[in-house]
Amino acid sequence: MSIHDAIATPDGKRRYVRTLFATIADRYDLITVLLSYGRDRAWKQRLVRLAAPSPGARALDLATGTGDIAFALHQLGGQVVGLDLTRRMIELAVAKASTRGPAFLVGDMQALPFPSGSFDLVTTGYGLRNVPDLPGAIDEILRVLRPGGQAVALDFNRPSNGLVRAAYLAYLTIVGSALGWILHRDPDTYRYIPASIRRYPGAAAVASLMETRGFVGVRYYRVLGGFMAIHQGRKA
Ligand SMILES: C[S@@+](CC[C@H](N)C(=O)[O-])C[C@H]1O[C@@H](n2cnc3c(N)ncnc32)[C@H](O)[C@@H]1O
Fold this sequence. Notes:
The chain is α/β, with parallel strands linked by helices and 236 residues long. It has a single domain (8-158, 201-235), classed as 3-Layer(aba) Sandwich (Rossmann fold), CATH 3.40.50.150. 47% of the residues lie in helices and 22% in strands. The protein is built from 10 helices and 7 strands. It has a 7-stranded mixed sheet, sandwiched between helices. Strand 2, helix 6 and strand 3 form a beta-alpha-beta unit. The longest helix has 23 residues, at 162-184. It is globular, with a radius of gyration of 17 Å. The N and C termini lie far apart (44 Å). The structure holds S-adenosylmethionine (SAM). Residues 17, 21, 32, 62-65, 68-69, 84-86, 89, 108-110, 125-127, 130-131 line the site of S-adenosylmethionine.
């Protein structure tokens, strides 16, 4: 079955994403550096600057992976929880954490194990594109935020110009296939990235969706000339 078919339904995407991130978890930090030419750190720093947690702010980092954003928020004084679907990612994050670092737990951002209004801030890096039900995930983020709390999310964009999009996706497919082969002997591994971008609505549509679902003050910042984006919105 092709990747496109495998992620075409919510159940299929859920299964595919679970298997994929369990496979790549141990090499995730290296892969992120390679695929972004080392730029990922700066993009996350920009997200954290926008999030600007005040000391003691209750922050939740979704799809936390090995915890980069959670650790950065913690350094600024946030009381941080990092949550991820993939147990191995959480194990790697915990291994990096000191006893007073962020708390990490395994969980699904589509069904958060927190009461409504629990957090001042919710962040996610490359989280929204991976969920099987994007409106449902946005609803969950809104639910766990307190009134006035904000969400900040970094992800790939889906270029609206067809030619640019085709070139971008072809580029990601070629680079992803090569890296997949070198690191896992499986060229399909990172072809998931362009496949998921193809199905993603893109930054402008995600901003509209956030507004439709109830966020206010929604805006997004273009990153890397618009190939990536950071969304920001508040709960009224
Ligand atoms: C590309 S990684 C991003 C990790 C980290 N945020 C970063 O920026 O380095 C995507 C992460 O999303 C997680 N993920 C995918 N679907 C999820 C879900 N429904 N709930 C929570 N985490 C999810 C995966 O396990 C994976 O760790």
